[in-house]
Structures are given as C-alpha cells and as structure tokens.
Amino acid sequence: QVQPVESGGGLVQAGGSLRLSCTASGRTFSSYRMGWFRQAPGKEREFVAAVSWSGRTTVYADAVKGRFTISSDNVKNTVYLQMNSLEAEDTAVYYCAHARPTFSNGGYYDPTNYDTWGQGTQVTVSS
Fold first, then answer.
1. Using an 8 Å Cβ cutoff, are 2 and 69 in contact?
2. What pLDDT is stored for residue 53 in this prediction?
3. Which residue in 110, 123, 50 sits closest to 84, CA to CA?
4. Closest CA to 57 of 79, 87, 86, 76
5. How confident is the model at residue 120 (pLDDT cuts 50, 70, 90)?
6. Comparing C-alpha atoms, which of 36, 79, 26, 85 is closest to residue 54?
7. What is the pLDDT of residues 23-73, one digit of tens each?
8. In what order do the strands lie in the sheet containing 68-73?
9. Beta partners for 124?
10. % of the chain at pLDDT higher than 90
11. Number of C-alpha atoms within 13 angstroms, CB side, residue 42?
C-alpha cells in the first residue's frame, strides 16, 4: 500500500513562503493522482490542490489560486506544494493524499475520492 509522508511545515510570517513535500513509502506513486488538503482547528478538511502524476493536470481551490503551486517529480516520487504569499487563514494541518483510480462525484475536491492519507504537517502563519 502506498503511504504518503509529508514534510516541510513550520512557522512563517504572513507574506512568507513554505514548500511542502509528499513522498511515497511502500511503492511508487506512478500513474496516480495526488492531492493536498488542509484542516484548521474547528473546521472541516478542505481541498487545496491536486495534480495528475504526469503533471499535466493541476487543480486548485479558489482560496489558494495564484499563490500556491502543486507539482510532481516522478524521479524522486515526490509531490510538492509551493506556498507563497501566505496568510494567517492558511494556518492548518496540511495532508497529502493518494487518489483512488476512479473518482465519484466531486472529483478532485472530494476527500472521499482519496484512499490513503499522510499524517499531516502543521503550517502556522503569524500575522
């Protein structure tokens, strides 16, 4: 079973940048789609971004569009989330998730379309 492992979280001032990484353990991510979600205290888990393993398809939540960039590196078996112009509202635990081969309604945005999740990495943006 593919197990995503996140890294790269931390504390940053508003306006700053962080890069999150998600690496597979178990076997390669090849041919799969991967997504990033986040969950702030007291809120539901929400979609952030997703990428096809080829990298040709990327999808973003409106709240991060233009500030975050998702990418994949097949050689390193890693998915990245580059986060720029961070805001206090971006504070959350960020989770990497491996998508199911087939999506139901809701597509990339629906967390039930992802079958394996990492432990999460904390991102805190101070204002």
1. no
2. 75
3. 123
4. 79
5. very high
6. 79
7. 987 666 656 799 999 999 999 999 999 998 788 899 999 999 999 999 998
8. 3-7, 18-25, 78-83, 68-73
9. 11
10. 72
11. 1
Whether the Cβ atoms of residue 61 and residue 48 lie closer than 8 Å to each other: yes
Written as six digits, the tokens of 15 are 């306006």
Residue 75 has pLDDT above 90, yes or no: no
For the chain, how many residues are written? Answer: 127
DSSP-derived 3-state class of residue 88? helix
In angstroms, the CA 9 to CA 96 distance is 12
User: How much is the pLDDT for 125?
Assistant: 98
CA distance 50 to 72: 10
- Decide: helix, strand or coil at residue 109: helix
- Integer Cα distance of 2 and 47 in angstroms: 20
What gap in Å lies between CA 102 and CA 87, rounded to an integer? 34
